[in-house]
Amino acid sequence: MDDAVLTRIAEALERLRPPPAAAPDWHGAGAFVWHADPDRLVPVAQVNRVDLELLQGIDRSRDTLIANTAQFARGLPANNALLWGARGMGKSSLVKAVHAACAADVPDLKLVEVQREDLPSIGRLLTLLRAAPVRVILFCDDLSFSHDDQHYKSLKAVLDGGVEGRPENVIFYATSNRRHLMPRDMIENERSSAINPSEAVEEKVSLSDRFGLWLGFHPCSQDDYLSMIRGYCAAYGVTVEDSRLVAEAIEWQATRGSRSGRVAWQFFCDLAGREGVAL
After folding, report:
1. What residue numbers bound the domain in which 156 lies?
2. Whether residues 199 and 247 fall in one domain
3. CATH of the domain at 36
4. Residues 105 and 228 grouped into a single domain
5. Is residue 204 located within the same domain as residue 244?
6. pLDDT in tens, the chain (279 residues)
7. 69 Cβ partners below 8 Å, 6+ apart?
8. I want to staple 220 with a disulfide (CB 3.0 to 4.6 A). Which of 121, 159, 211, 224 is the partner?
9. One domain, residues 101 and 168
10. Burial call 136-175: b when 16+ CB within 10 Å, e when fewer
11. What pLDDT score does 166 carry?
12. Whether residues 178 and 261 fall in one domain
């Protein structure tokens, strides 16, 4: 095959290749969602979030994440953050609420959500974000990896690896129910079956080590659970007798078999509906 034919083939393939993702109107929205194939950032007209003051029982994590985000928004050094722990305790809600609170002071602070399934395309996303005239919280909700999942290798370059490294205007926040982002039995299997067990385990847990901040979320107490519900009632104008609220809230959590911020919100939605209050 001569050079002319090869050149024509190369040119044809170049024409078929999708164009690079176009930069969005960064000032047209406060948050965006990344989609791959084709690559694009889709603006979010209305972010699904709750006010920061409604998040109860997570004061220390809230204050730490606010301080870290405020530093980043002002162009100061800040850490990637992993919010891990009990389900339904407000991990993703806190990220979105903190972004809203800090963006009120620094409008050029944007939130970009990336799905775990799109992590292989994250290098292309970083190229786009590197040239952005704004500062970006890159957010991945419910981040975890299964036994045969290799997506975690794509993520290492985002955190602090790679030749280029993480863009100066990007910080990465993730939530997970697992502290090390992988099932415990996966780590134990590596320890028991690998030729060099310690090296195999180190590769798996080194991903979570790349987060400078680990914020733990633990099951809430009954007092915190009731405080969450009372806070929702005050914020949305739902007035009921406290003894009735306590009795119904405890019965609700008993039927669910758990106590969390999510369960508190679900009970409140039911209560508001029965009281005829629109949310």
Report:
1. 26-217
2. no
3. 3.40.50.300
4. no
5. no
6. 566 666 666 555 555 555 556 678 898 999 999 998 888 999 998 999 989 998 988 999 999 999 999 999 999 999 999 999 888 899 999 999 999 999 999 999 999 999 988 888 888 899 899 999 999 999 999 887 665 556 666 677 667 656 667 789 999 999 988 776 655 555 455 555 555 455 555 555 666 777 889 999 988 899 999 999 999 999 999 999 999 999 999 999 999 888 999 999 999 999 999 999 998
7. 78, 98, 99, 102, 109, 137, 171
8. 224
9. yes
10. bbbbbbebbbeeeeebbeebebbbeeeeeebbebbbbbbb
11. 79
12. no
In a domain, 5, yes or no: no
Q: Is there a single domain that holds both residue 182 and residue 100?
A: yes
Q: Is the pTM of this model over 0.85?
A: no
Do 239 and 101 sit in the same domain of this protein? Answer: no
Q: How many residues does the chain have?
A: 279
The verdict on 117 and 82 lying in the same domain is yes
The domain tally of the chain equals 2
